[in-house]
## 1
Amino acid sequence: MRILEVGKNKKQYMELLFLADEQEDMIDKYIKRGTMFILDDNGVKSECVVTDEGKGILEIKNIATIPNFQGMGYGKILIDFVVAKYKNQFLTLQVGTGDSPATIGFYERCGFSRSHIIKNFFIDNYDHPIYEDGIQLVHMIYLRRTL
């Protein structure tokens, strides 16, 4: 298993990026300025895109694992990698996600705590309703952990 930084042709991973963010114009807002990592374990299993948000905050903008490989620890391995890589460069790692119990629980198990909410984020920024586990996402829930 290895984790590689993708410097060029990040959009070759669009199918994987769409698992975490369904709308291409939303991905376009961060893909160029973000740093992308892929986890390769006999083929790409997961990806993560992080951005410098200023004031010592590094943000996970997109993290996704191929569905057949979810629940096998690949997402946590990527988060642990990001934490180790950036712990001396940033103060905080944050992630914004929909209010889905499974996703929130995943981040909490990875050491994140709820920080703040952006009301109506998914309604105001997406051109169609977004659902996760049968729940329509409305508000963006931010979680943070200290690096």
## 2
Amino acid sequence: MLKIDTLSIRQGDRLALSRALTLIETNTSESHNLQSALFPFTGHAHLIGITGAPGTGKSTLVNQLAKTFRTSNFENPAPKVAIIAVDPSSPFTGGALLGDRVRMGDLSGDKGIFIRSMASRGALGGLAHRTAAFVTLLDAAGFDLILIETVGAGQAEVDIANLAHTVLVVEAPG
């Protein structure tokens, strides 16, 4: 069983954070203990949800928002930004299709940005079952802004409104 150091997560160790997020996806008792240990260090990040129908430009907007937050001189130092991209599940592996993450490739060189895709795995509402748990870890890891991109959403996929502080709805032109 993988032992993850909560201090490493809180100090922003990317490897520890990645391993912890993978552990959270498994939803084991160890993952519950990890969330409980990190919960007292949460409540500082601002959560921004981005939702809308498939193909409306959610990933493009997330990409531009992250770049703007990191490069604008409105805050010194620039805020640390985490992105959770909820993708449709692969019919073959059950994992995330990673389409959203591919469109955010120009963010990869910025050490102040952390991107994680997660598969919806059939969850309704536009989010994956473990999205809120991901937010807990990213908040405890010291990210100032957490951008949560929902899987392509329609009229019934509104779970992001219960999770995020700010929700942006992207609509297609016309």
## 3
Amino acid sequence: MSRRDELATNLASVQARITNPNVTLIVVTKTYPVSDVQILSELGITHFGENRNEEGLEKSSVIDATWHYQGEIQSRKLRDIAQWANVIHSLDTASHIAKLDSVAASEIDIFLQLSLDGDPSRGGVIESDLPALADAALASSHLNLVGLMCVPPVAQDPRAAFTEIAAIHRRFIARYPAAISLSAGMSGDFEIAVDCGATHIRVGSSILGSRTTR
């Protein structure tokens, strides 16, 4: 089977499992070559995700698409990230919001990263800390607050986690009605996430195969 046939088969399988046609599928291409991104673009994918600034810079210069950055944010790399990322999913500090706003040359959609357990090693903030970040984003000149992103704790039951995330998102929307998007769900759990209300899912290995480490 050719690589194109492999990707087409895997992509069709994932798309068939997405029960809500309004869900945005972001194909995460971290560690995969530009050639795979090109094939997926030809197959109709228009949203790609990267966790690494260097890969995002390289791939976005070749493939015209909506590019999502979802990795850990380092302040010194925000200027570079702002050059290629149309959407950033992992903002969780006011200082990064201010820095991003200052270096962005055009509007960037942003998600605030929610943490269910407050574990600082995994990124995100607890629910009570979200309003301060949201207010900072709304006061910015170049950032468009579109919603929340969350990666559930590994040990937590997925349905319970996504149900909790959705409830927090509903409360957030009550205060910030334009923030209607919810980025939640990856290869192993996206069907549950969609069932619980996710609007954006980030899928890599189910489409591209086992990820190589580098």
## 4
Amino acid sequence: MPLALELRDALRAEAGAILGLLERLVMTESPTTDASGVDAVAAILAGECAFPGLAARPHPGPNGANLEIGPSGGPPEVLVLCHQDTVFPRGTAEKRPFRVAEGRALGPGTADMKAGCAATVFALKALARVRPDLLARVGVLFTSDEESGSPTARPVIERLARGCRAAFVAEPARANGNLVS
């Protein structure tokens, strides 16, 4: 079976777990200026990515840690970028908690970009299950300050991207299908 189909099947089997992680991420508020909230999201992501072949390396900053997840043995060939911070102030998740309605996951930060974080974590897990040899070629950076222009993340992104064959941003498309660039 082609790799893409194996990964698709592995991810479909995890749909409930992906939604569970997304709910945890959405309900863990992480405004850009709230280092403790961003660090709490980073701790969740690091815990989810704690499996053989990958190492979690936090890069502390004033807005919380930029969290690098990557091969234990060297730089990645492919880099996936996500961000942990949101524009929503503390208390928003209490007023508009995570929920699924009409087949859509909703809540503050879901589309920007906690769904991308959850999808990336489970893509790594699926790759580790289906083709663990490829896992050593992939790195992820969960940044802490994208909503303010990435002042602390930018040097880390530039360092990690050097020498990569490809880089992807896991931010979901908008409801109308427009991509975020």
